[in-house]
Amino acid sequence: MPANFKAELLACFGQPVSENPTGKMQEAAFRELGLNWRYLTVEVPPARLRDAMLGCAPSGCAAEPDDPAQNRVMEHLDEIAPRPP
Fold first, then answer.
1. d(C-alpha 56, C-alpha 29), whole Å
2. In the chain, alpha helices (H)
3. Contact in structure between 10 and 64 (CB atoms under 8 Å)
4. Nearest to residue 46, comparing CAs of 11, 73, 77?
5. Contact present, 35 and 6 (Cβ < 8 Å)
6. How far is CA 25 from the centre of its chain?
7. How much is the pLDDT for 66?
8. CA-CA distance, 29 to 64, in Å (whole number)?
9. Long-range contacts of 3-6 (CB under 8 A, 24+ apart)
10. Closest by Cα among 5, 11, 4 to 59
11. How would you write the pLDDT of the chain (85 residues) with one tens digit per residue?
12. 68-74: which pairs have CB atoms within 8 A and are 24 or more residues apart?
């Protein structure tokens, strides 16, 4: 089987994000599970959230908005996965 060097991307969009520790926890979990995934914490002002979501989609990057952005981001999603039980 050929080597696969493609990393899956998960991005947290919000403002401010500099003190958000989620990236450190996510990256540790990815390593522990042997996943070739990367977690990006991206500073996105509310007025640019739609642009960030649209820019994320073509690359296959999954977006996870921070708490303040969660309600604003809903209108820009193609689909919403059901919440696990």
1. 22
2. 22-33, 49-56, 67-73
3. yes
4. 73
5. no
6. 13
7. 64
8. 16
9. 4/36, 5/36, 6/36
10. 11
11. 677 788 888 888 888 888 888 889 999 999 999 999 999 898 988 888 888 888 887 888 877 666 666 666 666 667 777 766 6
12. 68/14, 68/15, 69/13, 69/14, 69/15, 69/44, 72/46, 73/13, 73/49
Burial 13-34 (b: 16+ CB within 10 A, else e): bbbebeeeeebeebeeebeeee
Can you give the pLDDT at residue 11? Answer: 86
Query: 34: left (phi > 0), else alpha (psi -120 to 50), else beta?
Result: left
Question: Cβ atoms within 10 A of the Cβ of 2, count?
Answer: 4
In this prediction, residue 84 carries a pLDDT of 67
Tokens of 82: 């059901």
Q: Which amino acid is at 70?
A: Q
Q: CA nearest 45: which of 77, 14, 76?
A: 14
75, two tokens? 């209108």
